[in-house]
Write a structure and sequence with these properties.
Low-confidence stretches: none
Structural class: alpha/beta
Number of helices: 16
Number of strands: 21
Mean pLDDT: 96
Strand content: 15-25%
Length: 535
């Protein structure tokens, strides 16, 4: 048994969450010693490494601005052309179905990330910056000390057994959940969904699915393939995500009650499923079967956690803590937030401050973000195939995200408990309204909606929507300006909710919208919001 020189922090897992945390710690604290123990050997495979390839604004900003990785992202990854949704179940005429997406790039960037390329780069950076990154290391035992003594981690590396001791231990081991299992922190949630995915060593370009020049020219640039494509149907969505390595990631995510995993848990079964539900994608894949690079599936992937931050100097980040759903790609967002909270806790500890109360407070806020986002998915998958209700849901969900959660992140107020406290009423209103709108959308879809057209519902044609995205890049606001913005965005959400009620009632006159109306009381109907989407 060999003793490893004592680090300040041991990170269990050197994937996306663990390596970015190590880099953030090294960036924040000069001379901090970080040991990262990663089970996989590096370099990892490109293309067929891990899913979680689509990033959105918070995660993208964490990577490019906070960690300073913009040059890598622009040179080695792909700039994402937003989300794009098609309601084309059972059809072979994508260009004649309802399309929801932006005709041009919006202001705040996001990226399609080849996880193999990215994690190899993160590992190289970690070593360059003095982080002790051990790949091919297997953690055997973790002994947490509840007092002031160091925690102890026993691990195997290169045929030898080692013991390392550190003041902090952070579990970033993904679904292995080393500390979660050891401490009994696993927590189910009400979102029962499954997923399958694979990579094809070729580009899948939906522009090739149409010969209609006008349809092709709807987007500038005419590069829909750079979007995260969602092919939507009742109870499921299929993703198409391009990778800079030249491969394409393909996945199916479905409500377990509507589309059983057993109908798609091999590549051949998945192809049979595509033939039935997404025949145009089946056609695109059928001649590329020999280019299959991998195939994976995951049952009941969504999970919570009883505790993620502790005043006894341990924490969980990434999938080791909680995971929501790949729809809207929130995984890297929650890594960004949890890593930032952990970094701030370690900062307080290193400064000799009492940090345990902050661990409880940060966790409370983090779990509130989790609960708010989980509401976007729970019992909502039946809506996904509705070409009238689902676009309204997407606009609402993104307004809530850009208007509240993303503002907190971009304005660097995530750990500012004072500002969060002063906005407690507004944030609670927004959260309650979100829950109510999700219930209304579910009721509307169950009894109405469904009208479709061959139109493109252009998000970039909604001035207020594009401006909300643009506002993420604004210079830091002072306290008063920040509070004014959040309050204005909550008012915007109320106006949007009122208009959603009007749309739902125009379709289903007796729908019960009293809960939403009560929460949006005093807001006059605004016909300049969603109605532009249909113009």
């Amino acid at each position: 048994m060999h003793d490893t020189p004592q680090p300040d922090v041991i990170v269990l897992g050197g994937g996306l969450a663990g390596l970015t945390l190590a880099l953030q710690l090294r960036q924040r604290f000069e001379g901090i010693e970080v040991l990262v123990l990663e089970r996989r050997e590096h370099p990892v495979l490109e293309a067929a490494h891990k899913v979680g390839e689509s990033s959105v604004e918070i995660g993208a900003n964490y990577f490019d601005a906070v960690l300073g990785l913009k040059s890598h992202l622009m040179a080695r990854q792909l700039k994402k052309f937003g989300f794009r949704f098609f309601f084309n179940e059972g059809r072979r005429d994508l260009d004649r179905t309802t399309e929801l997406g932006a005709s041009r790039y919006l202001a705040a960037p996001s990226y399609q990330i080849d996880r193999g390329i990215f994690e190899n780069h993160l590992g190289e950076l970690a070593r360059e910056r003095g982080i002790h990154f051990l790949d091919g290391a297997r953690v055997e035992r973790v002994s947490l000390d509840g007092g002031v003594s160091p925690h102890e981690v026993e691990y195997e590396h290169a045929g030898s057994r080692h013991v390392a001791r550190a003041r902090w231990v952070v579990d970033a081991s993904g679904r292995a959940g080393l500390l979660k299992r050891q401490l009994g922190l696993a927590q189910d949630n009400a979102h029962d969904a499954n997923a399958i995915w694979f990579r094809i060593a070729d580009r899948i370009d939906v522009h090739d699915w149409s010969q209609d020049a006008q349809w092709k020219a709807r987007c500038d640039p005419p590069a829909r393939w750079l979007s995260t494509i969602h092919l939507c149907g009742a109870g499921y969505w299929t993703w198409l995500i391009p990778l800079s390595s030249g491969s394409h990631s393909v996945g199916i995510v479905c409500d377990a009650k509507i589309h059983p995993l057993e109908s798609m848990n091999t590549f051949e079964r998945a192809m049979d499923w595509f033939r039935r539900f997404q025949p145009q994608l089946y056609d695109a894949l059928d001649g590329r079967r020999h280019l299959l690079q991998d195939f994976r599936f995951l049952r009941h992937f969504s999970h919570g956690c009883k505790q993620v931050f502790s005043g006894q100097r341990w924490a969980l980040t990434g999938d080791a803590g909680l995971f929501l759903d790949p729809f809207y790609s929130p995984g890297s967002d929650f890594i960004a937030m949890s890593n930032t909270y952990i970094t701030e806790l370690i900062a307080k500890d290193r400064a000799g401050e009492e940090f345990a109360p902050y661990a409880r407070a940060y966790e409370q806020v983090y779990f509130s973000f989790y609960e708010s986002t989980l509401a976007l998915y729970t019992d909502q998958y039946r809506i996904f195939g509705n070409p009238e209700v689902m676009p309204v849901k997407v606009i609402w969900d993104y307004t809530y995200y850009w208007g509240v959660l993303a503002q907190i992140w971009y304005q660097r107020r995530l750990t500012d408990l004072n500002s969060l406290s002063r906005l407690r009423s507004e944030l609670a209103q927004a959260k309650a309204l979100n829950f109510a709108v999700q219930r209304l959308l579910r009721a509307w879809s169950a009894t109405g909606g469904g009208r479709e057209s061959a139109a493109m519902l252009d998000q970039a044609a909604l001035p207020w929507f594009a401006e909300l995205n643009q506002s993420l890049l604004d210079a830091p606001l002072d306290d008063a300006g920040y509070r004014t913005r959040i309050r204005a965005n909550v008012t915007l959400l109320k106006a949007l909710a009122v208009e959603i009620v009007g749309r739902a009632r125009a379709d289903v006159p007796d729908i019960d919208a009293t809960e939403v109306e009560a929460l949006a009381q005093g807001i006059a109907p605004e016909t300049a919001l969603l109605f532009r989407l249909a113009a």
